[in-house]
Amino acid sequence: MASAKEKLFRALTITVAVVTVAAALYIIAFRLGLSDKFDFGAGAYFYADHPELQDAADAASYTSAVPKWVYYVLFFGWGYLMWRLWIWIDKRS
Length: 93
Description:
There is one protein chain. This protein has 93 residues and is mainly alpha-helical. The protein has one domain. Helices cover 71% and strands 0% of the residues. The protein has helices at residues 4-32, 46-49, 56-63, 68-92. Helix 1 packs across helix 4. It starts with a helix and ends with a helix. Mean pLDDT is 76; it is low at 38-42.
């Protein structure tokens, strides 16, 4: 029978996994232009349609339109999942 601490960690791990996958899918959908909310359906062809965007800062501001907090959630969520995997593997050996 699992203890209360193990149940809490299991629930936390599942929650972090779901949020991490959602953040990754959000970034992928945004990059592919599948997000209707932002209307960047042109994707990689955006630059070909607008040759006046020669400045690297303009290009960088377009490609970094995903909020930074999404990347932080993805980074820390992935780190937490790898830590839990390490603990699980250590218990098995």
